[in-house]
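User: quick one, sequence for these tokens?
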């Protein structure tokens, strides 16, 4: 039997910095998030019981019912969710305060008889949820910002760019993802934050080798012997590691040190 394919809107939410809080605190913040998400969906006209829900451990994945207007997963859902999280945080301690990362995508998914959802769109959703840009933007935002939102280019084209009521395109910033096997443009937003969100600079470890500053040459190496794009580092033992921009490494052992 061929799998049943349906075009669905997908939402995932993950609690930021949930590790090392202990079981009691984690269970508490999971309960708060679940109830806040349920209420936000209901306020957005989306039936919680009609959604297909998956537990992610420190978050949830929601497959919206067929026919749901995707823009409603941005507005009013995000304002409704964040206002509830901020209200909780005002009375919470460090272990039970909640900030979340939210990801949105849509696509054709496979629906199993038991309600299981599979397919490539879920992989894209996972990459959006785990993107370093969303993590860094939320960490850099004021504590009053309770969520970061990252949406796929497809979701942006069908919702944000039209400027529907409650959605301001100028508050979304374009970022480029390179998460595992997924490379694509996406759009970052911080609900409740004025202006486009701060997006982190590219990771320094990904800079081209010929743009990396070279370490000083050893005293016994003549300046003319250093080739362009060559990087020289001291090894942890008795030696010097020479690396060229083409990835070649040569280890020169020294004695008597």
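Assistant:
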């Amino acid at each position: 039997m061929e799998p049943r394919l349906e075009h669905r809107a997908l939402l995932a939410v993950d609690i930021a910095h949930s590790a090392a809080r202990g079981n009691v605190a984690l269970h508490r913040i999971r309960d708060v998030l679940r109830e806040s998400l349920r209420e936000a969906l209901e306020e957005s006209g989306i039936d919680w019981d009609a959604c297909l829900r998956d537990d992610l451990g420190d978050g949830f994945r929601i497959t919206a019912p067929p026919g749901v207007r995707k823009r409603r997963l941005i507005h009013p859902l995000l304002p409704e969710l964040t206002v509830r999280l901020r209200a909780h945080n005002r009375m919470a301690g460090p272990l039970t305060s909640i900030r979340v990362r939210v990801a949105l995508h849509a696509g054709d998914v496979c629906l199993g008889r038991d309600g299981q959802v599979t397919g490539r769109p879920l992989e894209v959703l996972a990459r959006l949820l785990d993107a370093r840009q969303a993590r860094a933007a939320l960490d850099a935002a004021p504590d009053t910002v309770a969520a970061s939102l990252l949406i796929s280019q497809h979701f942006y084209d069908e919702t944000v760019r039209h400027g529907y009521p409650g959605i301001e395109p100028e508050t979304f910033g374009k970022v480029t993802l390179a998460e595992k096997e997924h490379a694509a443009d996406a759009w970052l937003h911080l609900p409740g934050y004025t202006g486009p969100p701060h997006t982190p600079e590219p990771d320094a470890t990904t800079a081209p080798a010929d743009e990396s500053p070279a370490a000083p040459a050893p005293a016994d190496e003549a300046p003319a012997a250093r080739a362009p794009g060559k990087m020289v580092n001291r090894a942890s033992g008795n030696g010097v590691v020479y690396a060229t921009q083409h990835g070649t490494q040569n280890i020169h052992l020294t004695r008597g040190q």
